[in-house]
UniProtKB/TrEMBL annotation:
InterPro entries assigned to the protein according to its UniProt record, in alphabetical order: G_OBG, GTP-bd, GTP-bd_Obg/CgtA, GTP-bd_prot_GTP1/OBG_C_sf, GTP1-OBG_CS, GTP1_OBG_dom, GTP1_OBG_dom_sf, OBG_GTPase
Binding site for GTP: 167-174, 192-196, 213-216, 291-294, 320-322
Location(s) in or outside the cell: Cytoplasm
Name recorded for this polypeptide: GTPase Obg
GO molecular function: GTP binding; GTPase activity; magnesium ion binding
List of residues binding Mg(2+): S174, T194
GO process terms (BP): ribosome biogenesis
Family that this chain belongs to: Belongs to the TRAFAC class OBG-HflX-like GTPase superfamily. OBG GTPase family.
Function statement: An essential GTPase which binds GTP, GDP and possibly (p)ppGpp with moderate affinity, with high nucleotide exchange rates and a fairly low GTP hydrolysis rate. Plays a role in control of the cell cycle, stress response, ribosome biogenesis and in those bacteria that undergo differentiation, in morphogenesis control.
Highest taxon of the lineage: Bacteria
Natural source organism: Barrientosiimonas humi
Length: 509
């Protein structure tokens, strides 16, 4: 079969990059050095999913699974900030579940207008105007914009309807939706006419409810045969399941009782998504509809099996979608079941219609890990902020690199490196495994002396696996040398007016 069922897509989204900040100096006639005036880069646009009533399938994403929001514009001189990138809003149908590739549910999108940010835009970099301070009057650098998040996500559509019509292909499910509601799904006498569930709104007296014609099921559907799993996914959210049984089929091996049992087996074998908190399919309300009763033989067969079905405790309706037989009774009965199911759900109080947010990341901390790699021992700094600061740094600019060192130091990264046993010249990696920046560490250690204990024991050495006396001495001297060098360097920089102690991390909050 050449048809493709598209209620599950893998989407690659990329948020916009932040624009770079700019380092610029104000120029005026007779005032050659008018101070820093480089503007900030704009923030990159986010990629946002939004539940849209106009959207019914994920087909568009199947055709074009790469989506990117626009970048922030770079800053400019004369204190001009770059414009922010536009958010990219992707409309999705009601009932779209957002997952990671690993299957973790990120969000369950219900309710028109519900929004979920799947990829955050990168922050724009600060320009030198914003980086200036009373002590660092003319920064000769700016911060880079950060790259936007990129992500692979899986979208799955799980139709939200009160009633699902299920059954073999060509049983007349779409025909029933078309006569029960004002929806006009495609109807044809070949199997798998319906590829995406059609939703119809049914009004019966005071009650209003939605019915969906789930595409035809075949044996093995729960194992993914035919388009089974895709179809069964839609049944997951429906409270009332209606077996639509074709009493006029001439296919060998088919009769109402067998058809019912085959479909029931598929329902029982389907494993619902636990994270959505659904009741197992086998426990949902069932109604049996024996269709095509306008055909005399079919009517006879229906009357014949009716008592057997009722003996199993099933409610049975003999109808004809084509001749409009038994439809009124059917819709009123469905309305009753729906009302009852709704009352039960309300009694449970559990609000199902919430958006699950991805776990909040604590971005304040960081961690230093000592790792052994093929290139020897390395120290890896893992944390939201250090990683971000590295991304903002223009490594071609010494002043910018110095500023980075200063920020890291203030966060306490140096101290932690010492505690972990790093010495001058150690290899330090900052950032995630696949995308780390490598440094040869040159400690500046402005906080060093306080850490030295009364009798010259260095507290930082204590929780380590007992170095020998010689090792200690060596390490101590190495550190002393490093401290001295670092102090001298800092001093030179201070004197040349590059440094300030002002905390410039307001952009982090
Ligand atoms: N005689 C008769 N034919 C019917 C009746 N209901 C549906 N049909 C016919 O059965 C065929 C299949 O109907 P559909 O409504 O498309 O069936 P379906 O269950 O949606 O099929 P799939 O979408 O393929 O799963 C069409 O040719 C319909 O005209 C009925 O009550 N009586
Ligand atoms: Mg159909």
């Amino acid at each position: 079969m050449a048809t493709q069922f598209v209620d599950r897509v893998v989407l690659q989204v990329a948020a916009g990059n932040g624009g770079h900040g700019v380092a610029s100096v104000h120029r005026e006639k007779f005032k050659p050095l008018g101070g820093p005036d480089g503007g900030n880069g704009g923030h990159g646009g986010d990629v946002v999913l939004e539940v849209d009533p106009q959207s019914t399938t994920l087909l568009d994403y199947h055709r074009n699974p790469y989506r990117k929001a626009t970048n922030g514009r770079p800053g400019a001189g004369d204190e001009k900030n770059g414009a922010d990138g536009d958010d990219l809003v992707l409309p999705v149908p009601q009932g779209t579940v957002v997952k990671t590739r690993g299957g973790e549910v990120l969000a369950d999108l219900v309710g028109f207008g519900t929004r979920f940010v799947v990829a955050r835009g990168g922050r724009g970099g600060l320009g030198n105007k914003a980086l200036a301070s009373p002590r660092r009057k003319a920064p000769g650098f700016a911060l880079l914009g950060e790259p936007g998040e990129t992500r692979d996500i899986v979208l799955e559509l799980k139709t939200l309807a009160d009633v699902a019509l299920i059954g073999f292909p060509s049983a007349g499910k779409s025909s029933l939706v078309s006569v029960l509601s004002s929806a006009r799904p495609k109807i044809a006498d070949y199997p798998f006419t319906t590829l995406v569930p059609n939703l119809g709104v049914v009004t019966a007296g005071e009650e209003r409810f939605t019915v969906a014609d789930v595409p035809g099921l075949i044996p093995g559907a729960s194992q993914g045969k035919g388009l089974g799993l895709e179809f069964l996914r839609h049944v997951e959210r429906c409270e009332v399941l209606v077996h639509v049984i074709d009493c006029a089929t001439l296919e060998p091996g088919r009769d109402p009782m067998t058809d019912l049992e085959v479909i029931e087996e598929e329902l029982a074998a389907y494993v619902p998504d636990a994270s959505l908190g659904g009741v197992p399919l086998s426990e949902r309300t069932r109604v049996v509809v024996l269709n095509k009763a306008d055909v005399p033989d079919a009517r006879e067969l229906a009357e014949m099996v009716r008592p057997d079905l009722e003996a199993r405790g099933l409610e049975v309706h003999i109808v004809s979608a084509v001749a409009h037989l038994g439809l009124k009774e059917l819709s009123f009965s469905l309305a009753r079941h729906v009302a009852q199911a709704r009352a039960e759900i309300e009694a449970e109080v559990v609000p199902q219609r919430t958006v699950l947010r991805p776990k909040a990341v604590d971005d304040s901390g960081f961690e230093v890990r000592r790792e052994n790699t093929s290139d020897g021992e390395v120290f890896r700094v893992v944390g939201e902020r250090p990683t971000r600061w590295v991304r903002q740094t223009d490594f071609g600019n010494d002043e910018a690199v110095g500023y980075l060192a200063d920020r890291l130091n203030r966060l306490g990264v140096e101290e932690e490196l010492f505690k972990a046993g790093a010495v001058a010249g150690s290899t330090v990696l900052i950032g995630p495994a696949d995308d780390a920046v490598v440094f040869d560490w040159e400690p500046t250690l402005s906080t060093g002396p306080e850490l030295l204990g009364r009798r010259g024991t260095d507290l930082r050495l204590e929780d380590h696996h007992r170095p020998t006396r010689a090792e200690k001495r060596e390490e101590f001297h190495a550190r002393k040398d490093a401290q001295r060098e670092a102090r001298e360097e800092l001093d030179t920089e201070r004197r040349s007016g590059i440094w300030t102690d002002r905390d410039l991390d307001e952009d982090d909050e």
